[in-house]
Amino acid sequence: MAEVIVVGSRKAAGALVAEAIERLVGTRPDAVLGLATGDTPLPVYRALAERVRAGLDLSAVRGFALDEYVGIPVTHPESYHSVIARDVVGPLKLNPAAVHVPDGRTLGIETAGERYEVAITSSGGIDLQILGIGTDGHIGFNEPGSSFASLTRVKTLTRQTREDNARFFASIDDVPVHSITQGLGTILRAKRLVLLAFGAAKAHAVAAAVEGPLSASVPASAIQLHPRATVVVDEEAASMLTELEYYRDAFAQKPIWDPVIL
Ligand code: GLP
Predict the structure, then answer these.
(1) Quick check: is 138 catalytic?
(2) Could you point out which of 71, 105, 131, 160 has its C-alpha 20 to 30 Å from the C-alpha of 249?
(3) Which structural domains are found in the chain, ordered by start?
(4) What's the 3-state SS for the chain?
């Protein structure tokens, strides 16, 4: 099962994951990070940016974004190309040529998934995949019903996801209907998974992902199949977990030889 770590704040979550990434990059300067978008991973990126300002060098790090909208120009401020450039590549001083985002342009979309899979495989694979979670239990844009074996491909967004993401656009009608996303099978190939979730709106999805039955109806439950998955949540997002006391206890008793997010 995933290791669940309950933190006091988003900032604490960011520090914890940034620490693990710094450790990874210390042993492997050209580590490959899987990059999520949305509000949730921002504390991680902010904590890393702080470390970069203090001298951490991430210039050899490579990255693969989880997903992209289909059919909006890459120059649109809410395309994930733009978001990754603004929130990640710039502040972390990554090499833009080493950070990839799925190609959501409609021209050539039939081959975009396969091209992305080849790029990930050729890089040697993702060392650490950062994940958020949608209120409907999606990861990346793998909506309920996604196959656990799925690879990067086009998915139609649910109404719920489009409503959740409408805050980034003028209205829900402007939220694209399609996305291109790493599949659950792609995500499961990463060497480590770190799923973050904050706030009561995520509590149900977190409980279903961590403790519910494995089900394509809760795509994030796929993390139960991964041998090195860590879930970092605040108290609100953790509030519906049945085994909360056990997770707290396990973390408090964590052996010294077992680093956080190994
Ligand atoms: C989008 C992204 C997901 C993200 C989810 C949650 O749908 N494709 O990768 O995890 O939103 O977003 P937020 O972190 O803003 O709650």
Answers:
(1) yes
(2) 131
(3) 3-252 (3.40.50.1360)
(4) CCEEEEECCHHHHHHHHHHHHHHHHHHCCCCEEEECCCCCCHHHHHHHHHHHHCCCCCCCCEEEECEEECCCCCCCCCCHHHHHHHHHHCCCCCCHHHEECCCCCCCCHHHHHHHHHHHHHHCCCCCEEEECCCCCCCECCECCCCCCCCCCEEEECCHHHHHHHHHHCCCHHHCCCEEEECCHHHHHHCCEEEEEECCHHHHHHHHHHHHCCCCCCCHHHHHHHCCCEEEEEEHHHHCCCCCHHHHHHHHHCCCCCCCCCC
CA 131 / ligand 1 centre spacing (Å): 8
Checking if the pLDDT of 221 tops 70, the result is: yes
For atom 3 of ligand 1, which residue has the closest CA? 140
**235 belongs to the catalytic site:** no
Q: Decide which of 143 and 260 is more confident.
A: 143
- Inform me whether the pLDDT recorded for 256 exceeds 80: no
22 is catalytic: no
76 is catalytic: no
Compute the distance from residue 254 Cα to the ligand 1 centre, in Å. Answer: 30
Does ligand 1 lie within 6 Å of residue 183's CB atom? no
